[in-house]
Amino acid sequence: MVYQANPSRYATMEYRRCGRSGLKLPAISLGLWHNFGDATLLDNSRQLLRRAFDVGITHFDLANNYGPLPGSAEENFGRLLREDFLPYRDQLIISSKAGYTMWDGPYGDWGSRKYLIASLDQSLKRMGLEYVDIFYHHRPDPDTPLEETLCALDHVVRQGKALYVGLSNYPAELAARAIDILQDLGTPCLIHQPKYSLFERWVEGGLLNVLQEKGVGCIAFSPLAGGQLTDRYLNGIPADSRAASGSRFLSPDQLTEEKQVKVRKLNELAERRGQKLSQMALAWVLRDESVTSVLIGASKTSQIDDAVGMLAHRHFTDAERAVIEAILV
Ligand SMILES: NC(=O)c1ccc[n+]([C@@H]2O[C@H](COP(=O)([O-])OP(=O)(O)OC[C@H]3O[C@@H](n4cnc5c(N)ncnc54)[C@H](OP(=O)(O)O)[C@@H]3O)[C@@H](O)[C@H]2O)c1
């Protein structure tokens, strides 16, 4: 059936300015790291994208290596884009990245000009796009001069293959240097994509201050710690969950009893607030004004609905913040 987007999709989503740029991002964005590769049923991926767009999620985040197999998330997304979303291309912010291993040999990884430019060309082909909205360097490269990597980002913008550029996984000090270099090149850094959740708080006090000061946006990835900050694992490991899938990013042994005790206490607090744990976890990441958007993953459309439901109850009392700090110690 031909997809017709929900006409009231913009009514309830909140759009937040990305740093000091002209671009606004939805408070919730959808990542295609899991559940869009060849190991997933295409129809489920289609339903996830449709539901996300129908509730005002205008930003889809990809990378060259998302799959499995690497590249297959971009290929599948390209197909769904052609079949469902082409009339809406100008209403979408599509990002991709390069920085992790993508192909054999010395030119398929890290941060050289050779790798980044070739990788973006491949991503555009896989997705059937003329340009991406945001192109990221996915992780710092200790061996390539920072200037070379950033000149490559500047170059793809000048070529018209990306509208904006971003950094991911850069620590605070390196991010500050990179942001200054990009500014001097005339291609300001739009956004930084760090891991940030109740369980992963390295950005606080360092990176977030840098981004705020320099007017760069922030999109927090894995805000639910891959599903740990939800009710998914409260009663064991469901067969259809990420932890049961053999993922090296969330294995059953990561769900330690110590963590589960915290999750249960956080869940009780969420219940007292009248929301789900996943909703409280997302609201908590968004409490900081320097965070533009939370970048979630989803395997079911109901998880997207849960995320959007969070927007109705975003605020924390001082007492609730103190309880959370005490639980996380
Ligand atoms: N830049 C980087 O280096 C980097 C690294 C990692 C990720 N990312 C980006 O961040 C995106 C999100 O990462 P992520 O998938 O780890 O994010 P996440 O939001 O922390 O975890 C998503 C998972 O949590 C579970 N979940 C979500 N909502 C739920 C709900 N309401 N109730 C119960 N369980 C729920 C689902 O797991 P089940 O599958 O078990 O249902 C879902 O797949 C990626 O797609 C990618 O775009 C970037």
What does this structure look like?
The chain is an alpha/beta fold. The protein has one domain: NADP-dependent oxidoreductase domain (TIM Barrel). It has 10 helices and 10 strands. Strand 5 (93-98), helix 3 (113-127) and strand 6 (132-137) form a beta-alpha-beta unit. Helix 5 packs parallel to helix 6 (207-214). 43% of the residues are buried. The mean pLDDT is 97. It binds NADP nicotinamide-adenine-dinucleotide phosphate. Residues 31-34, 61, 138, 168-169, 193, 221-227, 230-232, 241-242, 278, 295-299, 303, 306 line the site of NADP nicotinamide-adenine-dinucleotide phosphate (NAP).
Write a brief caption for the model.
The chain has 329 residues and is an alpha/beta fold. The protein has helices spanning 42-54, 72-85, 113-127, 146-158, 172-185, 207-214, 257-273, 277-286, 301-309, 318-328; strands spanning 15-17, 24-26, 28-31, 59-61, 93-98, 132-137, 162-168, 189-193, 217-221, 293-296. NADP nicotinamide-adenine-dinucleotide phosphate (NAP) binds at residues 31-34, 61, 138, 168-169, 193, 221-227, 230-232, 241-242, 278, 295-299, 303, 306.
